[in-house]
Amino acid sequence: MLRFCQFGAGRIGAIHAANLHAHQDAALAAIIDVDEVAAAALAGRVGARVASTQEALADPEIEAVVIASSTDTHADLIEASARAGKAIFCEKPLDLDIGRVEACLDVVREAGVPLAVGFNRRFDPSFAALRARIDRGDVGRVETVCITSRDPALPPLEYLKSSGGLFRDMMIHDFDMARWLLGEEPVQLFAAGSCLVDPGVAEVGDIDTAVVILKTASGVLCQISNSRRAVYGYDQRVEVFGDKGMVRAGNRTPTSVETATADGTVHDNPHYFFLERYAEAYRAELDAFIIALSKGAAPEPGGYDGLAALRLADAAWQSHREGRPVDL
Amino acid sequence: MLRFCQFGAGRIGAIHAANLHAHQDAALAAIIDVDEVAAAALAGRVGARVASTQEALADPEIEAVVIASSTDTHADLIEASARAGKAIFCEKPLDLDIGRVEACLDVVREAGVPLAVGFNRRFDPSFAALRARIDRGDVGRVETVCITSRDPALPPLEYLKSSGGLFRDMMIHDFDMARWLLGEEPVQLFAAGSCLVDPGVAEVGDIDTAVVILKTASGVLCQISNSRRAVYGYDQRVEVFGDKGMVRAGNRTPTSVETATADGTVHDNPHYFFLERYAEAYRAELDAFIIALSKGAAPEPGGYDGLAALRLADAAWQSHREGRPVDL
Amino acid sequence: MLRFCQFGAGRIGAIHAANLHAHQDAALAAIIDVDEVAAAALAGRVGARVASTQEALADPEIEAVVIASSTDTHADLIEASARAGKAIFCEKPLDLDIGRVEACLDVVREAGVPLAVGFNRRFDPSFAALRARIDRGDVGRVETVCITSRDPALPPLEYLKSSGGLFRDMMIHDFDMARWLLGEEPVQLFAAGSCLVDPGVAEVGDIDTAVVILKTASGVLCQISNSRRAVYGYDQRVEVFGDKGMVRAGNRTPTSVETATADGTVHDNPHYFFLERYAEAYRAELDAFIIALSKGAAPEPGGYDGLAALRLADAAWQSHREGRPVDL
Amino acid sequence: MLRFCQFGAGRIGAIHAANLHAHQDAALAAIIDVDEVAAAALAGRVGARVASTQEALADPEIEAVVIASSTDTHADLIEASARAGKAIFCEKPLDLDIGRVEACLDVVREAGVPLAVGFNRRFDPSFAALRARIDRGDVGRVETVCITSRDPALPPLEYLKSSGGLFRDMMIHDFDMARWLLGEEPVQLFAAGSCLVDPGVAEVGDIDTAVVILKTASGVLCQISNSRRAVYGYDQRVEVFGDKGMVRAGNRTPTSVETATADGTVHDNPHYFFLERYAEAYRAELDAFIIALSKGAAPEPGGYDGLAALRLADAAWQSHREGRPVDL
Predict the structure, then answer these.
(1) What is the pTM of this model?
(2) Which residue from D minimizes the CA distance to A142?
């Protein structure tokens, strides 16, 4: 039984807390949040205590932490947790600044604690199966990867201001997916972005629509497409093409119902957003973290994966701004 | 918070116990099973105590029971629970004998306690959505219903001997589905059965493959098809046709992955069996039971639904045996 | 180059004439129709002459006939063509009366001419591929067959009066499909029919909705479902289940376009009716007839297949009328 | 009745000749090919005469030409046909050299004859329906377009040497599709290419795998992906995303058959190549040409479309070679 504390009692925190509560080999001992009401409410639902950061990190019975607080607290909490000797599961991104992430990873390395980053999509059953087929050789050598990733609706402009921008906030998931599937690191990136959804996005210095090309040293090509608004739901698809075939993972739907009338044959739209689509992935990523710790293995994706995806996001921003490909 | 005890710590019992444990408005206080080791193991996992039938039914804090023990104990436990004033959720079938079911329902009626029967498929998100579309008028007046229901693999012949036969053990779910979707009661039934999967099935007096036609008073027609063995998994589909169109609910798959190679384009088979396909339905049926109790409403499907489906099963057995349609 | 004459210049005649005209190994020399204007128009489009029955059958250069005239003329034309030594392709049904069909087949047998019946669905690429998979053993031994066949819209009641009724006019195609797929002849049939689409159908003594169960000597089961009206188009599906799996052929659509909006994901309805769905089948059936003649092989499906399907249709009508299964 | 002659009796020539032969409002009078045996064979099949270029162009009864000869003859034949006052349908590309195409279009303009270019994909029923949905406003304002286009197998290296390269020979179709769907002209293009299928392709100075990004003045983004080899068949898909939804056209398959066994559920691969996939498109493009001529309307796509797609292809080659985006 692995005892956790968790930083953050918000939306994503509620998911992780429920998953830890239900896990056979984990116990959630303490919840820490600046919003003490939220912390108490969540703690009550999962039988945990409310704690302060200091108290929780000082508790020798707590072996692991989940960091699900706001992005600007991640790096500090990683360092504090590492220094306290805790195993760390941190929501993405580690930080929006590459220098800060590098410093943070140094502290983790020195402390010798395991660090996992919450790139949840690797644990989606469909994407995990897609990767397993590639590993099994079903499509042969990978030649092109195509990732489509669209959110259902634009977040508030207030959120976008501190989000780090589309590439660091949204496409960072797709950069991780690309690295995970390409089989080798990209060496060149070209990004083209537009503001098509809402002019207010441009006013806060961001874009809402973007496409990116990645190229690896051996010439494998990757396309990524993002939009901040898809009125039909959360559009999350991956296609990998190789010399022996193609494997793709499509959207998941709430039901299998299909209705045929004089107006056409209609089936479900994709799940509305990440809470529905990735419910299983959130369970599975914590499960994998717990299993890795129990085996003494390094959890995946780890701190370096968080850093590498952020570097691609920064390069994309530079490419978009300068209108030219960026060598990595 | 509604306090339950549960009879039965087997496979289906484990599912119900976990769902009660995770439910916000329910508490599982006690597990009762003749196999005390199984009872203790399950009780440990969900924080319940092991109890005897007498002790549990005498506990005034326990307001509701889940009956997930072997079929031959259902009727006695229903009656004992009813006399103890508990609300009852009972796995299907209530009993294999219609007379016994009728007697049992009399006791429940006298006691004035709510009784729900575990026809879980009504709570499958896809079938529930299909029914909602019919109710909304999407397909107009229902004219034909077609239900396909195939298990992945033949159960042990030992199981079949005491199962009550294909119609009472397996097709009973489809009879309930038919009643639920037809909008009126069937008045005639014709059944044709065969033993095609394993000659051993015939030796224990049963069949393994069957098709049935139901007809209602207004002429609505229903087809049901069953097989005890589908090598590609649990095949559970429903199609409803009306004057304004058709609605159908297909199988669900573990992933959305599709692989295209020189040999063809392959996607997932359906979920393997009921544990996977109906995981959400098992959660939802208990949830609906708890909500009905909290509102003082009669839970659905109720005791009469259990009886009516059993009557159809008996009529099917008679039709098959006598080679003629049976009026209901 | 095989020279044909064709009886009938109506809708189905136009299809056959165009297909003969485009065929590399066939020539359409003459068109015969009581409506001389129609005969002339069609003849003009395909470079044929208008002829009388006598003249055409007396022409020694004409080796084969296509009979696409009204049903009540089929038997006489078959006999006259057989006596003239022509190879015969006749639209279904050969006649609505079993005695007449038997007499007709006697004449054909005596004359020793080849006779093919236009059960076009056997030549649909999807159904032909389905049958090929069964023959290849992909699904093992066939255990159940399920045939769904719905027309888009009720024909005029005037047509229904002389149609022979739903079983002989519409389900006869499905009876042929069943015989073709079951691998052995049915020995028992149960039919249940209703008048749900239009009360006028009952007034002319017919039904518009029906389901049938067929059973073979070894216990293989077949379900057929018919409706005279499907507002979403021509619904033509076949599913065959065996001990090694299941093969099914679904509907075909005009395009592969799918639109996802806030209202759901919509794709095409099936093709509207037989002209669209079975365009390839009409080409292929004549092609198979021409190939069979060129090889001196008996064309399939032949006269006996026409008779056998009619016997099933008559049995279905009897079963429906008498409310009991009919032994075949 | 519009009388044609046709230059070219090869594979694509056979298709056009058969379609003209079957067309109600067209007659194919003459076939011209340097290979006189091929010309005679094709002419025999469609009831045309073999002719020389001079003779055919001098024939006043011939009003229109189809140019389906080798690419290097297109420009000369266009000019000669234009000067002879014939309406022209020319296979793509008009020429591989932009200067030559421009000169050629000047001659056509002076002659005042109609010129259509064989971008057949615009006439595929699925892509045509997709475009119609966009025009109807189903997806609102177009924001991103994604075009996937993969050939089943690498052509002979000998062919590649004179093909003009992947962008001019293969992706030119996708450039036309992009222009047709984007609603405005691209202003910037970035191309990344690789040689992954066969090193021999690099040896002849070409690539076999490429991805391209196009951007329009208003910021609409387009992705194109090409491979010269897809072992599962001809992969031809288009997806258009807008503020009101998404519309896509997928592949078409030979049949609708699906087989489910213990190994998974398998359905058809896409049609093998363009002859199968675009059979209807080839018929429809000539039909549209004939209709346009009969109405005195300019046929579409016209000469400028051929030129504009070639300009994009040249820009792609430059972008790929120089590793930078190219402004258009």
Answers:
(1) 0.96
(2) D196
